[in-house]
Each structure stands twice: as structure tokens, then as C-alpha cells.
Design a protein that fits this description.
alpha+beta; 4 helices; 110 residues; globular; Arc Repressor Mutant, subunit A; DNA-binding; homodimer
DNA sequence: TTGCCTCCTGTAGATAATCTAGGAGGAACA
DNA sequence: TGTTCCTCCTAGATTATCTACAGGAGGCAA
């Protein structure tokens, strides 16, 4: 009990990943670290959400992967945004703004 | 295809309902109308989401129901917030602010 | 009094995103 | 040689939401 709500808002993970990869190509583990860091530890992505999401995005053609070596000389799969991914990011961002603004309107009503 | 993303951000429905009922007691159908109206038509709650959500909330003790007659003289189940519901609304609102602020941080990074 | 429309409640089943809880390979280092 | 850390991956469960129905009851018109 005292069940803590999820650390994410469901439906925003794809957008967060796309945005992070828009900053620079990165491997999956790095993406989750990066998001956590930028959000000051508020957004925590666990691996069971991260990797399926990356596959989803690659399936859709929004990101592309390539094996390489990480900073620590480990094998790592580097992802980068495709052109279609860029477009998708823009759309998802616009939709997010629209929905979150609407929610704020409700919260401030009365 | 061109699959439109959900009209809601998953996980925010309970908060929206609680907030609407905090404005004034209302029947279920009225709650969804109200949310749609306040959000200028952006947030649309369909019935298959609405009624299960109301049951969830009543189960948790956050709202209480009572049958009555609507403005149009139809039978309607009026819901009102309980004290625990008020507290829950505050918590969910705070959590929403925390998460949406974190997401904005990520979106504005770079 | 019949029929239809609107209001309002409800349910079953599918879908899909996320979480839990694991496993594994390989580099670095003691 | 053993241990730790980095990085990738997966199966199964959970749960919120959506789709697509059904039905009662009031009001109104013919």
C-alpha cells in the first residue's frame, strides 16, 4: 500500500526517448540515465520499459540502431533519430502541450 | 492507421474526475460533459472509461454516490467528494505538477 | 397509445503500455 | 580467479483505457 504512482506519465515515454536522442545519438542505457539526470531524478525509466520502447520506436522507423563501443569500452547499441523520428517527436510534443494545457485548465477551474 | 493517440493522458482521469466533483456534486454523465467543456473539447472521456473509473473511486472511498433526479428529471447517480477524496485530489495534483514539470524540463533541454 | 429521441447508466472483451523480476555477456580490476 | 559494473534483453503480470455494445425511463409528437 501507499502504492506510489508510476514514475512516468503513461504515453510520454516514447516522446522522452525521442527528445533525448534528438540531443545526440546515445545507447539505450544512456538514454535512461540522461532522462533521469535532466529531470533531476524525477523521471525513472526501468529497463523493462526502456528496451521494449526502443524496439517499438525502431519498428516504426523513428530511430535507427548501430552497435558500437561505449565510453567504458563495453558493447552498446547506439540509437539515433531518423527524419521520420524528428517529425514524430514534433507531433508528440505538440500533442503533449495540447493535453497538458487542457488538464491545467481543468485543474484551475472553479 | 493515422491512429489518433488517446484523448487522455493515461493516469490523469481519476484526478480530473475528482477535481470536477470538487467544484460541485454531479452525476457521472455530467462529469464527462463538464470536463469536455472546461477543456474546450480537448479532453473527451468515453463511457467505457468513465463508469469503471467512478467505481474505482467509490471503492477507494474517495467519492460517495446517491441516486437522485437530474435537471431533466431522469434518474441519475450523484457523486460527491469525500474528505479522503479531497486529500487524494491534492496528492494527485501535486504528483501531476511534479511529473509534468519534469517532462517540460526534458523537452526544453538542449 | 405508439413510437422515437435523448439522457444516463452500465458491461464484456480487447488493446497496449508499463512494471516486476528475472537472466546473461563481457570489460575492468583486485 | 573472482567480483563488480556496464549494458542488453525477455517473459509474464498488471492495469487503465477503448470499442462496442445493451437497456431503462422521461418527454414529445403523431
Amino acid at each position: 500500500m501507499a502504492k506510489t504512482k508510476s514514475d512516468l506519465l503513461q504515453g510520454t515515454l516514447d516522446m522522452l526517448i525521442l527528445k533525448t536522442l534528438a540531443l545526440e545519438p546515445m545507447h539505450g542505457w544512456g538514454v535512461s540515465q540522461r532522462i533521469q539526470q535532466i529531470s533531476s531524478g524525477v523521471l525513472n525509466i526501468n529497463q523493462g520499459s526502456l528496451y521494449p520502447a526502443l524496439y517499438r520506436l525502431e519498428d516504426q522507423g523513428w530511430i535507427k540502431s548501430e552497435w558500437g563501443a561505449s565510453d567504458n569500452n563495453r558493447q552498446a547499441k547506439y540509437y539515433k533519430l531518423t527524419r521520420a523520428g524528428r517529425k514524430q517527436l514534433d507531433e508528440e510534443t505538440a500533442n503533449w502541450q495540447r493535453l497538458s494545457a487542457a488538464i491545467e485548465q481543468v485543474l484551475q477551474a472553479g
